[in-house]
Write a structure and sequence with these properties.
By secondary structure, the chain is an alpha/beta fold. It folds into two domains: 3-218, Rossmann fold, CATH 3.40.50.300; 223-283, 2-Layer Sandwich (Alpha-Beta Plaits). Helices cover 34% and strands 27% of the residues. The chain is built from eleven helices and 13 strands. Strands 5-6-7-3-8-9 form a six-stranded mixed β-sheet, sandwiched between helices. Strands 11-12-10-13 form a four-stranded antiparallel β-sheet. Helix 3 crosses helix 4 (110-116), helix 4 (110-116) crosses helix 5 and helix 8 (213-220) crosses helix 11. The two termini are 34 Å apart. The structure holds adenosine-5'-triphosphate. Adenosine-5'-triphosphate (ATP) binds next to strand 2 and helix 1. Adenosine-5'-triphosphate binds at residues 14, 17, 19, 37, 39-45. InterPro entries: AAA+_ATPase (IPR003593), ABC_transporter-like_ATP-bd (IPR003439), ABC_transporter-like_CS (IPR017871), P-loop_NTPase (IPR027417). Keywords: ATP-binding, Nucleotide-binding, Transport.
């Protein structure tokens, strides 16, 4: 697979603070990668280095095969800051036309780009009257100029309502399907869990974990939870069958088990036949996994 971003043993210091330490990462075309980490973990520093805005001390970084900040790299990369701000007197269309002209592209593409982010209906309204979600869409339209191969998005959904968040991720899905690689930071783990391909956890400037959700689950080896609903009249028998269980407020039995014990336990539950009304198997969430890797690092 083609790699749009290759980071190898990257280290960056700010005076006495080691913002990034020995971080290695690869980002493939068409992949959506979430960059997670506590405040101060090094996410923005990594993004600034990828964009060529600040130098680094050690290691190597290549963006589509070129040095970050070089003309070749900048032609392939787009960036959306967390709080994109625009002149309130300009319309969305005027703003995008302006950016297109700056990039040496035909300003006539503006409406097409705004249409792509679902903002064509408001393109001729002044941005002073736009909601936060609409401004984020203008920001995203700006990132699409010149069909970049790498999109770097700093907390792109912060401040958006649930529907706007979902729409935003739908847009990202389309861009990734068209072949763009997307690196986004977020503190909203539930949306990241469902809408990205790989997860990178930075902790205190180093790479605490990296992989698909399934891979991180495997590495963390956290327990699985089984929620067993007893059939009416079988509550006592089931509680006796699973002495390690705890009863939930809604009357279900909660059993925690290691991954390796999951299948034997499921067999035990199914063997109880009609005594069991229902069963839910709950794997560890990204929040559990994130806490695990962060705690392991003392964060
Ligand atoms: N220009 C700077 N000068 C000095 N220290 C800095 C500078 N920029 C970042 N740092 C330090 O580097 C570390 C990483 O900061 P960074 O902004 O990359 O974190 P972050 O993960 O983006 O955090 P947040 O989620 O709060 O945005 C922090 O300790 C921060 O104080």
């Amino acid at each position: 697979m083609t790699s749009t971003l290759q980071i190898s043993r990257l280290t960056k210091r700010f005076q006495t603070v080691e913002a990034l330490r020995d971080v290695s990462l690869r980002l493939e075309l068409g992949k959506r990668v979430a960059l997670l980490g506590h405040n101060g973990a090094g996410k923005s520093t990594m993004m600034k280095i990828i964009l060529g805005l600040i130098p680094f001390d050690n290691g190597s970084v290549t963006v589509c095969g070129s040095a970050p900040g070089s003309a070749a790299a900048r032609a392939q990369v787009a960036y959306l800051p967390e709080n994109a701000s625009f002149h309130p007197a300009l319309t969305g269309e005027e703003q995008i036309r302006y950016y297109l002209a700056l990039r040496g592209e035909d300003p006539k593409q503006a409406m097409g780009l705004l249409e792509k982010v679902g903002l064509a209906h408001a393109a001729r309204r002044r941005m002073g009257g736009y909601s936060k979600g609409m401004r984020q869409r203008v920001g995203l339209a700006q990132t699409l100029i010149g069909k970049p191969r790498l999109l770097v998005l700093d907390e792109p959904t912060s401040g958006l309502d649930p529907v706007s968040r979902r729409d935003f991720y739908d847009l990202l899905d389309g861009l990734a399907a068209d072949g763009a690689a997307i690196l986004l930071s977020s503190h909203v783990l539930t949306e990241v869990e469902a809408r990205t391909d790989r997860i990178v956890i930075l902790s205190g400037g180093h790479l605490a974990a990296e992989g698909t959700l399934a891979e991180l689950r495997g590495q963390a080896a956290l327990p699985v939870v089984l929620l067993i609903t007893p059939a009416p009249g079988s509550e006592t028998a089931l509680a006796a069958a699973f002495p390690q269980s705890a009863r939930t407020q809604d009357g279900r039995l909660r059993v925690c088990c290691e991954q390796a014990r999951k299948l034997p336990l499921l067999s035990q539950v199914t063997a109880l036949g009609a005594q069991v009304a229902d069963l839910d198997v709950i794997p560890p969430s990204l929040e559990d996994i994130y806490s695990h890797f962060s705690r392991r690092d003392g964060q």
